[in-house]
Amino acid sequence: MSTRTDIAAQIDHTVLNPTSPHAAFADACDYAIANRCASVCICPFFVRECAERLRGSGVAVCTVIGFPHGTHATEAKVAEARIAMADGAAELDMVVNVSKCKDGDWDYVERDIAEVCRAVHEGGRLLKVIFECCFLSDEEKVRLCEICTKVGVDFVKTSTGYGSGGATVADVALMKAHVGPKVRIKAAGGIHTAEELLALRAAGADRFGCSRTEAILAGIPE
Predict the structure, then answer these.
(1) Does the active-site annotation cover 128?
(2) Domain housing 24
(3) Which of 47, 66, 72, 178 could tie 76 with a disulfide, CB 3.0–4.6 Å?
Protein backbone atom coordinates (compact mmCIF):
# COMPACT_ATOMS: atom_id res chain seq x y z
CA MET A 1 0.00 0.00 0.00
CA SER A 2 1.26 3.49 -0.84
CA THR A 3 2.28 5.83 1.95
CA ARG A 4 0.58 9.09 2.90
CA THR A 5 3.40 10.98 1.20
CA ASP A 6 2.89 9.02 -2.03
CA ILE A 7 -0.84 9.77 -2.09
CA ALA A 8 -0.43 13.43 -1.17
CA ALA A 9 1.88 13.83 -4.16
CA GLN A 10 -1.05 12.81 -6.40
CA ILE A 11 -3.61 15.20 -4.92
CA ASP A 12 -4.66 18.58 -6.28
CA HIS A 13 -5.76 20.15 -2.97
CA THR A 14 -8.86 22.03 -4.06
CA VAL A 15 -10.75 25.15 -2.98
CA LEU A 16 -13.26 26.17 -5.66
CA ASN A 17 -16.30 27.15 -3.61
CA PRO A 18 -17.20 30.66 -4.85
CA THR A 19 -18.19 31.74 -1.34
CA SER A 20 -14.83 30.81 0.22
CA PRO A 21 -13.13 33.65 2.09
CA HIS A 22 -9.55 34.68 1.39
CA ALA A 23 -8.34 32.69 4.39
CA ALA A 24 -9.57 29.42 2.85
CA PHE A 25 -7.40 29.93 -0.23
CA ALA A 26 -4.40 31.00 1.83
CA ASP A 27 -4.78 28.06 4.23
CA ALA A 28 -4.97 25.67 1.26
CA CYS A 29 -1.55 26.86 0.12
CA ASP A 30 -0.05 26.33 3.58
CA TYR A 31 -1.64 22.88 3.88
CA ALA A 32 -0.44 21.78 0.44
CA ILE A 33 3.10 22.89 1.18
CA ALA A 34 3.15 21.14 4.57
CA ASN A 35 1.82 17.90 3.07
CA ARG A 36 3.62 18.09 -0.28
CA CYS A 37 0.52 17.88 -2.45
CA ALA A 38 0.82 17.89 -6.23
CA SER A 39 -0.91 21.25 -6.54
CA VAL A 40 -3.37 23.71 -5.10
CA CYS A 41 -6.40 24.03 -7.39
CA ILE A 42 -8.04 27.40 -6.81
CA CYS A 43 -10.31 29.99 -8.45
CA PRO A 44 -8.68 32.08 -11.19
CA PHE A 45 -8.68 35.36 -9.26
CA PHE A 46 -6.38 33.86 -6.63
CA VAL A 47 -3.79 32.45 -9.04
CA ARG A 48 -1.33 35.33 -8.75
CA GLU A 49 -1.27 35.26 -4.95
CA CYS A 50 -1.23 31.46 -4.93
CA ALA A 51 1.86 31.47 -7.16
CA GLU A 52 3.59 33.84 -4.76
CA ARG A 53 2.70 31.71 -1.75
CA LEU A 54 3.84 28.46 -3.43
CA ARG A 55 7.03 29.80 -5.02
CA GLY A 56 9.93 27.42 -4.39
CA SER A 57 7.76 24.86 -2.58
CA GLY A 58 7.52 22.26 -5.35
CA VAL A 59 3.70 22.48 -5.20
CA ALA A 60 2.13 23.53 -8.50
CA VAL A 61 -0.52 26.18 -9.07
CA CYS A 62 -3.65 24.79 -10.73
CA THR A 63 -6.77 26.66 -11.77
CA VAL A 64 -9.95 26.15 -13.76
CA ILE A 65 -11.01 27.35 -17.20
CA GLY A 66 -14.61 27.68 -18.41
CA PHE A 67 -15.69 26.60 -14.95
CA PRO A 68 -18.06 25.08 -13.95
CA HIS A 69 -20.34 24.69 -16.98
CA GLY A 70 -17.94 24.78 -19.96
CA THR A 71 -20.31 26.88 -22.05
CA HIS A 72 -17.97 29.86 -22.44
CA ALA A 73 -16.98 30.83 -25.98
CA THR A 74 -13.75 29.17 -27.06
CA GLU A 75 -12.11 32.58 -27.38
CA ALA A 76 -13.01 33.33 -23.77
CA LYS A 77 -11.52 30.02 -22.60
CA VAL A 78 -8.30 30.73 -24.49
CA ALA A 79 -8.11 34.24 -23.03
CA GLU A 80 -8.80 32.91 -19.54
CA ALA A 81 -6.05 30.32 -19.97
CA ARG A 82 -3.53 32.94 -21.08
CA ILE A 83 -4.37 35.20 -18.15
CA ALA A 84 -4.02 32.28 -15.73
CA MET A 85 -0.64 31.34 -17.17
CA ALA A 86 0.56 34.94 -16.99
CA ASP A 87 -0.50 34.97 -13.33
CA GLY A 88 1.51 31.82 -12.63
CA ALA A 89 -0.72 28.79 -13.21
CA ALA A 90 1.21 25.66 -14.17
CA GLU A 91 -1.82 23.38 -14.66
CA LEU A 92 -5.20 24.32 -16.12
CA ASP A 93 -8.40 22.28 -15.79
CA MET A 94 -10.80 23.13 -18.63
CA VAL A 95 -14.47 22.12 -18.76
CA VAL A 96 -15.77 20.76 -22.07
CA ASN A 97 -18.91 22.23 -23.60
CA VAL A 98 -21.33 19.57 -22.40
CA SER A 99 -24.19 21.09 -24.41
CA LYS A 100 -22.23 20.58 -27.61
CA CYS A 101 -21.39 17.02 -26.56
CA LYS A 102 -25.08 16.28 -26.07
CA ASP A 103 -25.82 17.74 -29.52
CA GLY A 104 -23.17 15.50 -31.05
CA ASP A 105 -21.34 18.55 -32.44
CA TRP A 106 -17.99 16.84 -32.14
CA ASP A 107 -16.23 19.19 -34.58
CA TYR A 108 -17.04 22.09 -32.25
CA VAL A 109 -15.96 20.11 -29.19
CA GLU A 110 -12.65 19.16 -30.81
CA ARG A 111 -11.92 22.74 -31.87
CA ASP A 112 -12.78 24.03 -28.41
CA ILE A 113 -10.39 21.62 -26.71
CA ALA A 114 -7.69 21.95 -29.37
CA GLU A 115 -7.51 25.74 -29.23
CA VAL A 116 -7.17 25.80 -25.46
CA CYS A 117 -4.67 22.94 -25.59
CA ARG A 118 -2.59 24.79 -28.17
CA ALA A 119 -2.46 27.93 -26.03
CA VAL A 120 -1.63 26.00 -22.87
CA HIS A 121 1.12 23.93 -24.49
CA GLU A 122 2.59 27.02 -26.15
CA GLY A 123 2.89 28.36 -22.63
CA GLY A 124 4.65 25.17 -21.51
CA ARG A 125 1.88 24.21 -19.08
CA LEU A 126 -0.37 21.18 -18.56
CA LEU A 127 -4.01 20.88 -19.66
CA LYS A 128 -6.61 18.71 -17.94
CA VAL A 129 -9.98 18.38 -19.71
CA ILE A 130 -13.02 17.95 -17.47
CA PHE A 131 -15.78 15.77 -18.95
CA GLU A 132 -18.50 16.12 -16.28
CA CYS A 133 -19.23 12.43 -16.67
CA CYS A 134 -22.51 12.47 -14.74
CA PHE A 135 -24.18 14.22 -17.69
CA LEU A 136 -22.72 12.02 -20.44
CA SER A 137 -23.44 8.59 -21.88
CA ASP A 138 -20.63 6.06 -22.09
CA GLU A 139 -20.54 6.60 -25.84
CA GLU A 140 -20.04 10.34 -25.33
CA LYS A 141 -17.29 9.72 -22.78
CA VAL A 142 -15.49 7.41 -25.20
CA ARG A 143 -15.74 9.99 -27.98
CA LEU A 144 -14.24 12.62 -25.67
CA CYS A 145 -11.41 10.25 -24.78
CA GLU A 146 -10.68 9.79 -28.48
CA ILE A 147 -10.74 13.54 -29.11
CA CYS A 148 -8.51 14.30 -26.13
CA THR A 149 -6.03 11.66 -27.24
CA LYS A 150 -5.99 13.08 -30.77
CA VAL A 151 -5.55 16.66 -29.58
CA GLY A 152 -2.82 15.67 -27.13
CA VAL A 153 -4.13 16.88 -23.77
CA ASP A 154 -2.22 15.88 -20.66
CA PHE A 155 -5.11 14.63 -18.51
CA VAL A 156 -8.77 13.78 -18.80
CA LYS A 157 -10.78 14.51 -15.66
CA THR A 158 -14.06 13.05 -14.47
CA SER A 159 -15.94 15.94 -12.89
CA THR A 160 -16.07 19.53 -11.70
CA GLY A 161 -17.62 18.60 -8.37
CA TYR A 162 -20.57 20.84 -9.23
CA GLY A 163 -22.58 18.39 -11.34
CA SER A 164 -25.08 15.83 -10.10
CA GLY A 165 -22.36 13.24 -9.50
CA GLY A 166 -18.61 12.90 -9.05
CA ALA A 167 -15.85 10.43 -9.80
CA THR A 168 -16.75 6.76 -10.10
CA VAL A 169 -14.62 3.66 -10.53
CA ALA A 170 -16.62 2.76 -13.64
CA ASP A 171 -15.92 6.10 -15.31
CA VAL A 172 -12.21 6.00 -14.49
CA ALA A 173 -11.95 2.46 -15.88
CA LEU A 174 -13.80 3.50 -19.03
CA MET A 175 -11.52 6.48 -19.54
CA LYS A 176 -8.43 4.36 -18.91
CA ALA A 177 -9.56 1.90 -21.58
CA HIS A 178 -10.08 4.59 -24.22
CA VAL A 179 -7.37 7.22 -23.83
CA GLY A 180 -3.95 6.92 -25.39
CA PRO A 181 -0.88 5.96 -23.35
CA LYS A 182 0.27 9.57 -22.96
CA VAL A 183 -3.02 10.81 -21.47
CA ARG A 184 -3.36 10.55 -17.70
CA ILE A 185 -6.56 10.49 -15.64
CA LYS A 186 -7.66 12.81 -12.85
CA ALA A 187 -10.55 11.70 -10.65
CA ALA A 188 -12.43 14.51 -8.94
CA GLY A 189 -15.76 15.15 -7.31
CA GLY A 190 -17.18 13.46 -4.24
CA ILE A 191 -14.00 11.79 -3.01
CA HIS A 192 -14.49 11.64 0.75
CA THR A 193 -12.32 8.80 2.06
CA ALA A 194 -9.00 7.08 1.56
CA GLU A 195 -10.85 3.93 0.50
CA GLU A 196 -12.64 5.80 -2.28
CA LEU A 197 -9.42 7.38 -3.52
CA LEU A 198 -7.55 4.08 -3.51
CA ALA A 199 -10.34 2.38 -5.46
CA LEU A 200 -10.18 5.13 -8.10
CA ARG A 201 -6.39 4.79 -8.17
CA ALA A 202 -6.66 1.05 -8.74
CA ALA A 203 -9.03 1.73 -11.65
CA GLY A 204 -6.45 3.90 -13.39
CA ALA A 205 -6.48 7.44 -11.96
CA ASP A 206 -3.14 8.92 -10.95
CA ARG A 207 -4.23 12.42 -9.97
CA PHE A 208 -7.07 13.37 -7.64
CA GLY A 209 -8.98 16.57 -7.03
CA CYS A 210 -9.89 16.68 -3.35
CA SER A 211 -11.35 19.32 -1.07
CA ARG A 212 -11.35 16.87 1.87
CA THR A 213 -7.66 16.14 1.63
CA GLU A 214 -6.99 16.14 5.36
CA ALA A 215 -9.63 13.48 6.07
CA ILE A 216 -8.47 11.37 3.13
CA LEU A 217 -4.80 11.45 4.12
CA ALA A 218 -5.71 10.58 7.69
CA GLY A 219 -6.81 7.20 6.37
CA ILE A 220 -3.46 6.47 4.69
CA PRO A 221 -0.54 5.01 6.69
CA GLU A 222 2.51 7.22 7.02
Answers:
(1) no
(2) 4-218
(3) 72
Q: Which of 87, 112, 157, 171 is catalytic?
A: 157
Give residues with Cβ within 8 angstroms of 191, minimum separation 6: 166, 167, 197, 200, 208, 209, 210, 212, 216
157 is catalytic: yes
How many structural domains does the chain have? 1
Query: CA nearest 126: which of 38, 67, 7, 204?
Result: 38
Among candidate residues 93, 112, 154, 171, the one labeled active-site is 93
pLDDT-based confidence at residue 76 (cuts at 50, 70, 90): very high
Question: Please, which pLDDT band fits residue 222 given cuts at 50, 70 and 90?
Answer: confident
At 107-140, the pLDDT tens digits run 999 999 999 999 999 999 999 999 999 999 999 9
- What is the C-alpha to C-alpha distance for residues 144 and 165, in angstroms, rounded to an integer? 18
Does residue 103 have an active-site annotation? Answer: no
Q: How confident is the model at residue 1 (pLDDT cuts 50, 70, 90)?
A: low
CATH code where residue 147 lies: 3.20.20.70
